Amino acid sequence: MRLPYNLRPPQPRLRSILSFGMMEVMPATLEQVEAKPTATRSTFIFRFVSTIALWSIALVIAFSGYELAFYGLISVFGLIALWEFYRMLDHRGLPNFKITAMICGAIMLCGSFYYFAKMGPARSYDFEVAVLLFFLLTVFARQMFARLRQDEPLQTMAYTLFGLLYVLWLYNFITKIVYVVPRSSAGAVTGQFYVLYLIAVTKFSDMGAYLLGSAIGRHQMIPHISPQKTWEGFFGALALSLCASLALYKLMPGHLSVLNWTHATILGLLLGFAAVVGDLAESIIKRSTGVKDSGNFLPGIGGALDLVDSLLFTAPLLFFYLRLVIRVP
């Protein structure tokens, strides 16, 4: 019985064509698999160079003692991170008032620095609440002149408010850490060393998660949020943040005088845990908005928000630990 044409086995010529096609496909697939380690190494090199450059700038400014320069560096990254957040919303087509938020964010950062430096913490906290209230009223007033389309006004206000609270309000705890620590006997600010401690422990946590997760990571942590995060990386983050905390206290006991070995141990673990949560929090936002990186501001790292995402959770934690546990005056 003669089979229909579409059920006949491939002819020799067709087999040769298929075989040739498979030969064309296979090397391309292998090249993609083999290129992955190279891309990973390249990314790590770029990340390493960017990190060294940033640390060099931060250390020079911190040890110079110039408050304005140190605060300027903090503010630049905070405002860029806020802008990147709203750009991610724009990428997804989510409505927001980013210009209003940027103006209020700049006012909050500059005002906090002025009140902390000149009038003390109490006035600064009052100013921060006043800015948030003004921002809330401004967003409502701005919405009154926009077109009403079903639930779009509510979405616009919610996204705008969330951006300022998530990025800049949490980030502003870095400013509070600078000034919540008592000044030296000569009246100089010493809080910048606690900020450097915070950044170092947080970034060593990120490094531990990256290195151990890349090397032996097998068990996914929360795959629906970030498939590349593993439990091995999580414990690597805790281990390296603990080591960094203890090492920094050993190297700079005079600059971290309100800490002791117990506090350094507890903070090493707490900050490492909070850094992982902060990184996952940004992963939720990036996955929701359909972007891989918040920006391309820093080679090998991504955007400013990718750089400070963990600090958004570790900075408030360190601040409240200093205030409520150590009870700095």
Please give a structural write-up.
By secondary structure, this protein is an all-alpha fold. The protein has one domain (50-326). It is built from 11 helices and 2 strands; from the N terminus they run αααααααββαααα. The chain has helices at residues 12-64, 67-92, 98-119, 121-144, 152-171, 173-180, 191-216, 231-251, 261-289, 304-308, 311-326, and strands at residues 220-222, 226-230. The chain has a two-stranded antiparallel ribbon with strand order 1-2. Helix 6 runs parallel beside helix 11 and helix 8 crosses helix 9. The longest helix is centred in the first third of the chain and has 53 residues, at 12-64. It is globular and about 60 Å long. Residues 3-8 and 11-37 have low confidence and may be disordered.
Task: Provide key terms for this protein.
single chain, 329 residues, mainly alpha, two-stranded antiparallel sheet, 11 helices, 76% helix, disordered N terminus
Give the SSE layout:
Blueprint: H1 12-64, H2 67-92, H3 98-119, H4 121-144, H5 152-171, H6 173-180, H7 191-216, E1 220-222, E2 226-230, H8 231-251, H9 261-289, H10 304-308, H11 311-326
Antiparallel strand pairs: 1-2
Helix pairs in contact: 2-3, 2-5, 2-9, 3-4, 3-5, 4-5, 5-11, 6-7, 6-11, 7-8, 7-9, 7-11, 8-9, 9-11
